[in-house]
Design goal:
8 strands; binds flavin-adenine dinucleotide; methylenetetrahydrofolate reductase (NADH) activity; eight-stranded parallel beta barrel; 10 helices; 15% strand; TIM Barrel; alpha/beta; FAD; NAD; oxidoreductase
Length: 287
Amino acid sequence: MQLHTLFHGPRPVFSLEIFPPKKSGSIETIYATLDSLKTLSPDFISVTYGAGGNTADTSTVEIARHIKNELGIEPLAHLTCVASTKGQVDERIRQLRDAGVENVLALRGDINPDVPVAKDFAHASDLARVIKAAGFNVVGACYPEGHYENKTLETDIDNLKYKIDAGVTHLITQLFFDNTLFYRFLDLAAKRGVTVPIEAGVMPIVNTNQIKKTVVLSGASLPPKFTKMVSKYDTDSEALFQAGVEYAIEQINDLLSHGAAGVHVYTMNNPRVAKLVYEGIRPALGR
Ligand code: FAD
């Protein structure tokens, strides 16, 4: 099923993101996680690609195949292009097609000083065009606070139109914690001609490790409600866990009450968190 059809349905789209296990050879661990996530009946599950610039890793394809064929859920395979030649991308496309994958999130990838740029693809839109031509449904990434390489949010939004011209049918946002920034982004995007549905990416923050690594790296603005939560429960891991789940539930319910086209939950491969969040947003999802 091509994912763009989901946005014509009566209810908001609900999707999940997982990442391949860090150590090769431990792919089975993700299958147990996926068995738990299946009970949430997500519209699709996306699988990240090329952690740390390692684009030789085929686990994204293998996991997407498992999601499609063993779980009967639509996978969205991420694919980056900045460090890949056209030949390598063509090979990955062939593998994805063999695995029955119909949807690809076309990404440029971060420019890593330790990994040479391959020069065949400068932007995600270049990859999107190739993937679209190969018959896949193409999805793109977007940034409610602007991508870090741009001086202004407006320029970044204008650049999104290259992806849409290349055939991207919907966008998924980078994580954010302040919904007002997402609403501002939606408004600006609509005014500047970005017409495809935009799914809001939300990451429940449930431990201090995540705060140190993911939150700081993302550069996302932290509203006072968030920083108060973190400082209040800094030394109480269970209380921080509960508060983090609650924060994500409130954030998503607010997004859905404002008519968000869909929510994409960054699960961090933690089914317990995903389930708790799902229970808290289920009525708003209409499920
Ligand atoms: P682009 O769309 O190419 O944008 C990159 C920069 O170039 C932006 O500043 C943009 O404004 C500018 N730009 C775009 N087109 C043009 C143009 N024609 N002319 C001039 N400037 C232009 N990374 C991974 O390695 N693996 C993953 O699985 C992964 N999954 C992600 C999922 C989501 C939902 C998001 C939001 C990000 C993900 N990333 C992933 C990170 C992503 O690869 C980085 O943020 C990367 O820096 C930008 O990728 P992009 O696809 O948005 O690039």
